[in-house]
Every structure is written in structure tokens, then in C-alpha cells.
Input
Amino acid sequence: MSKPAILSLHQALMKSFQSIENNQKVWGNVLADCSPLMVSLANLAEQSRALSNVQISNTPLRDFPDLEARLHFKILQATDTVLVKLNEKMSSLQSVRDTISNQVSAVVQLYEQSADCLDLLTVTERSATAPSVSDMLEWLQDAERHYRQQFLRRKTLLQTLRADDLSLLESAPKRWKSLESPSAEEHISDTLCKVSFFIESQ
Amino acid sequence: MEGDFTATSANRKCSAVAGSTRKIKDNAADWHNLMVRWDKLNEDGFSAAANIVNIRLKRSPMDQWLLVDESPSAPSDGAAELQDECCKLQVVINKMVVMVTKMECLMTSQRGVQDLEEFQFGAEGRKFPLFHSWSTKKFEESSRLLLDYFGQELKLKQTILQELAHTATSDLCMVYLSCWLHQPFIPPQSRLTLEALLLETGHRPL
Output
């Protein structure tokens, strides 16, 4: 009775881990693209601050009509461009998160449907090459939670940014970097190593 | 002017109308090329300008220290480097001056086309547009607009060149760099004007 159920559960687990493996790379690449964008944001804020600190009429630039307004406009425009790019990156992160969340919830649902015909031994049994079903479900949920939280934190950071709040923009790269969680990423990589034989076995 | 071109497949359609068409179309292409090259020059100039500011800001605490110490031998190593970068920036500016001169020529040539038309057709100009919908005057207006933008921007850049290496406050240095990078006198609509020009003259497909 439990044989077909455990087989299809294994299939689903395998698919989820493969999906996480692929998406982990995508996630990393997108984040790598974001860092230089955050640095440009801070840089533009620094330029705005310098502009507001300087009294143009006391400098050799005084002869240029509405230089300050024009430059301010150009800086704002550049800031806007960077923010648009960052938002595009956030959409990529969101789609990674959605893919992983959907995969994992599908597996959990499948487990719940067949939980009645799976006894404790089947669920916790492990072999030299395959971890137990319960362990793998836990790892999947850990990974899913990680991407969900990461996405939310980064999205929140971006949403609090305002083009006219220079100190927020200036500190953005630092705060963005502080959201990094190498231990969680490592944990996911470890998990993928642990299930590598299992993934290859079928 | 009329027999001045070879009828290749690319320009045969225009050549059927008049020499002015060819002239305007070539001018539009020149505008495009000049603006692309200007952007490239702007990038080159920016790296030189950024180097100047870096050398300059690195040196300024040293200068203060020298005032106390009164030792005359130390500061020369940065000076040669600074001079070098200033020369690079000067070269960029010289090229930009040449480009604005070329833009003025384009403007003059456009004016010439306009004068010819007034001579041929009177003050209200030709009845049918040379291309899709623009009157000949419109080309001249576009050229003048672009020339004004770049002329003013060149003046700004010349001022920056003169002042940059003599500026000690970091905020003002930043404003100069920012001006160089963002080109405040070349507004975003310059790009639109160019695209409109290219679209009207058929360089860009409608």
C-alpha cells in the first residue's frame, strides 16, 4: 500500500531539490547584479549631497543658467533608472521564490495526502544513499523559508528608499549587504550535497 | 548640388526628389555620428577627470602637512601624474571643440538648404514636404536646438577643465565630476530630437 505512495513522494522530492539547485544559481547571479546597482544608488546620493552643500553662486559655475536645477534633475533621472533596474531584479528574485515555494508546497501537500498510508518507519527510514523522507521535507521547508524571508527583507529595503532621502540611499549598499546570510546559503548547499546521491539514483 | 551623389539602391528614392533631401539626410546621419562620438569622448574625459580629483584629494592633506614641515622636496611625484591627467582631459576637450565646430557646419549647411528653398519657392517654402511631414524649417530648428545644447555643454566642460585641478573642497570636486558625467545642458529631449530627425529622414524605419 505504501510502496506507490513513497515512490511518488521520492519523485516529487527529487524534482524539488533539482529545482532548488537550479534556482540557487539564478538567485546568486541576480544578487551579484544587484550589488553594483546599490553602489551606484549610494554614489548618486553622494552627488546630490555634494550639490546641495555647494553654493553654486560662489563658484566658477555661477555663469551657467539653472545649472543646479538641471544637474539635480539629471541625478534624479539617473537614480530613477537605477531603481527601475533594481525593481526588474526584484521581479527575477520573486519568480525564483515563487518557483521554489510552489515546488515545496506541492511536495508537502503530496506528503499530507499520503500520510495516512505511510507509517513512521517508512518516513524516517534512511539508507546510505538516500536521506529519510522526513529529513528531506524539513530541508526543503528550510530552504523555502530562507528564500521567502530573503526576498521579503530585500523588497522591504527597496521599498523604503526615497529619491529625496539621501541618508537612506547612502546607507543602502551597506544595509543590502547586511541582509546576506552566507550560513543559510551554505546550509542549502550542504543539503544539496546530502541529497546528491538520492537525486542521481533515480 | 543636384548631381552631386551616386544613385545607389539606398538613396535612389530620395534622389528622385531633390538635392536638398540628400543633404538633409546626410546631415541627420552626421548628427547621429557626432552625438555617439561625443558620448564616447565624455566617458574618456570622465575617467581623466575622476583621476584628477583623486590625485587632488589625496594630495591636499599632504599640502597642509608640508606647510608645517616646510620641506620643499616631497610633493613632486603627484604633480607629474596630475599634469598628465590634465593633458588627457585637455585632449578630450580639444576634440569636443572640433565636434562642436562640425555641428556648427551642419547648422550652416542646414541654413543653406533653407535659404535655397526660400529662393526657389518664396517665403512660405515648398508645398510638399521633402520627407514625411516636416517642413524644411523644422530641420533647421532641430539642428539649432542640438547645437545650442552641445555648445553650452562644451562651455561647461571647459570651465570644469580650468577649475578641476585647482579645487580643494571635495564637495565642489564632486559637483564638477557630476556635471561632467550627467551633462546637465544636454537634456533627455536631445535624444528625442535626434530620433525624430532620424525617423523623418528615413534612417530609422517608420
